[in-house]
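Field log, afternoon session.

UNIT: design team B
ACTIVITY: writing a sequence onto a fixed backbone
BACKBONE:
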């Protein structure tokens, strides 16, 4: 790969054709998907179909991201990030820009999906996220810049997928990318060392963001109490308070711990709903019986027949007795 170019990449217009200097593959830009600290991601058309193409300004950073994508693809049993296709350079106006090509995930934004399908999906998708984070942490990485913008829901059954892995950092190092609202350093509740608890703090803040779509500002003091009050005053968040409070205060050392406790919490919630539904149904039946008007007693036809037969037998018996005696 070529050396680093320190010139920023200007927005690449729709329709621009990007040809790789080394692999000779051609991509046509369709639209911009998003900006990151280390580059810009575009939707592009290619011989492979639609792909996501990230153009950067620093070869070392782009190569580092590619190495992360390759590592993620080697994790067995789960798909953690987009599939990696190739890395190359693009020459433009006498300058050389590194880029790499990956799978385009055509999914629905996390919060849009939850708003459409119902709040109960928050817990289900968080279970998926914690499972995948557990796998990532076992491989010695921390996601770092974990936020709703980097999460999509695709497929049927719905599956949570990760987007930009540019913030993924080796355990023990300083997190290289973060977004303030989801960063424990910003809230004064921990440092920015890459460790599992850093990602778990971000998971908790994603749930808080679901409860407060417009987010909220950091207080000048009393951050811990401030966040706990935010949870307590929101109906959606109150259900998850035991889990969220522990994650925010760094009391989970592993994603699997948080996932297990969330699973138990959700199971308990489902059982409570079942009991409430059964109770509601039973009360309904009782009320229905109480409100039902008393049934009128109807003389059944067969009773009338029996009585008539008995009456006739009685007189027939008297007739026989009279003849005998």
């Amino acid at each position: 790969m070529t050396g680093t170019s320190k010139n920023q990449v200007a927005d690449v217009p729709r329709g621009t054709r990007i040809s790789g200097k080394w692999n000779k593959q051609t991509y046509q830009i369709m639209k911009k998907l998003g900006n990151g600290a280390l580059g810009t991601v575009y939707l592009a058309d290619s011989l492979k179909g639609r792909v996501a193409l990230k153009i950067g300004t620093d070869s070392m950073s782009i190569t580092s991201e590619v190495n992360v994508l390759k590592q993620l693809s080697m994790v067995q049993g789960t798909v953690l990030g987009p599939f990696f296709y190739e890395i190359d350079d693009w020459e433009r106006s006498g300058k050389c820009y590194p880029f790499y090509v990956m799978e385009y995930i055509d999914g629905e934004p996390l919060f849009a999906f939850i708003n459409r399908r119902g709040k109960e999906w928050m817990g289900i998708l968080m279970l998926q996220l914690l499972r995948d984070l557990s796998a990532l942490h076992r491989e010695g990485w921390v996601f770092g810049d974990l936020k709703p913008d980097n999460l999509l829901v695709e497929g049927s059954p719905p599956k949570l997928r990760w987007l930009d892995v540019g913030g993924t950092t080796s355990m023990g190092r300083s997190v290289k990318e973060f977004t303030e609202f989801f960063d424990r350093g910003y809230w004064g509740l921990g440092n920015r060392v890459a460790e599992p608890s850093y990602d778990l703090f971000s998971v908790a803040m994603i749930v808080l963001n679901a409860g407060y779509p417009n987010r909220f500002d950091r207080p000048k003091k009393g951050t811990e109490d401030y966040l706990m009050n935010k949870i307590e005053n929101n109906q959606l968040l109150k259900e998850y308070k035991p889990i969220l409070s522990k994650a925010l205060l760094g009391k989970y050392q592993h994603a699997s711990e948080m996932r297990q406790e969330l699973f138990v919490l959700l199971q308990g919630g489902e059982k409570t709903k079942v009991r409430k539904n059964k109770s509601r149904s039973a009360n309904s039946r009782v009320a229905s019986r109480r409100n039902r008007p008393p049934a009128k007693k109807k003389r059944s036809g067969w009773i009338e027949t029996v009585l008539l037969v008995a009456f006739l037998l009685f007189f027939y018996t008297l007739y026989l007795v009279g003849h005998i005696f």
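LOG NOTE: The domain at 108-270 is CATH 1.10.510.10 (Transferase(Phosphotransferase); domain 1).
NEXT ACTIVITY: expression trials, pending approval
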